[in-house]
Amino acid sequence: MGGKLIIAGGNLSYCAAMIHRRLIEYAGGADAKLAIIPTASGQDPASTIEYVKELWIKLGADPSNIIVLPVYGEEGKGWREPALGDEGSILNMLEGITGAWFTGGDQYYVHKAFVRKDGSDTKALEYLKKVFRNGGVIGGTSAGAAIMSEVMIASGDNATALSSPILYGYEDYDDSDESGEANLRIVKGLGFFTKGIIDQHFDKRPRLFRLIRSLTDYGSNLHMGYGVSEDTAMVYDRETKNITVLGRGGVYIIDCSKAEKARDIDSVTVKNVVVNVIKEGDLYNHLGNIFLFGDSQLGSKEGIS
């Protein structure tokens, strides 16, 4: 049995109920034990927690089976050792869950809580991955979507991605800088999705080029990127390897396997990037590199170069 990932592009509004209904369905329905993981939402995520909880109850979830993981965002450069995700009480709370939802905010907090300083998985993260492998569902929106991939984009936009050095890791990161970080920063994600790099708020924020540069400069064997529109979710089925779409927007599938780079002093130019866009009703299978748009089955070369 394969698990599911529901990776939402942020700013869920019109399609929020549809996306959360699917999460509850995949988790086992009304009697499923569900976890809200509000870590990205900072030190006071009460309103976010209440929103998700009320929505789940409205969609038929049993309130007694909803838990809120008390792993809140910790500001500053300090790293707790052991990490919050290694606390026994947290692991006990997760026992028996079949679905979990990571809220939006700053993925830095999620990284610090669930990934040890040496880069290894905490016990809580190991357990969540076991839930996924055993047929459960893991979902998240915005920052809660960015953390899904093994390689995670932490900051940056199109302009700086094409003109400034890439930063790696969180060792020098300052979360108190309210102006926002300019440079493209690439760090370790939680690793639920291992087939490419996830990006979110696509369509609404300038992120296409930062995703392309992440794929071409990171130095790994990851050549596929997935940009998820707002009010939209990318659904990944671990067993079939199918990717489908829920919501109003699309999922931009970026193939850099044949990309070529030309460098000069001031910028980076990349050619031979293939872009496909799928929407609700379409399907992409990364194992066979097969696209199914409505009734037409096409290979990835039919995308926009």
From TrEMBL:
InterPro entries: Class_I_gatase-like, Peptidase_S51, Peptidase_S51_cyanophycinase
Keyword list, A-Z: Carboxypeptidase, Hydrolase, Protease, Serine protease
Keyword Lipoprotein listed: no
One Pfam family here: Peptidase_S51
Chemical reaction(s) catalysed: [L-4-(L-arginin-2-N-yl)aspartate](n) + H2O = [L-4-(L-arginin-2-N-yl)aspartate](n-1) + L-4-(L-arginin-2-N-yl)aspartate
Keyword Amino-acid biosynthesis listed: no
Gene Ontology terms, MF aspect: carboxypeptidase activity; peptidyl-dipeptidase activity
EC number, as in UniProt: 3.4.15.6
UniProt family annotation: Belongs to the peptidase S51 family.
Stated role: Exopeptidase that catalyzes the hydrolytic cleavage of multi-L-arginyl-poly-L-aspartic acid (cyanophycin; a water-insoluble reserve polymer) into aspartate-arginine dipeptides.
Stated name of the protein: Cyanophycinase
